[in-house]
Amino acid sequence: MRLSAKGRYAVMAMVDLASSNSAKPVCLADIAERQKISLSYLEQLFGKLRKNGLVKSVRGPGGGYLLSHEADKTRVSDVILAVDEPIKATRCRPGAPFGCHLGVGRCQTHDLWDELGNQIYLYLSSVTLADVCERRVLGTSGEWHRRRHTAPVAVAE
Question: Which class is domain 1-85?
Answer without folding.
Answer: mainly alpha
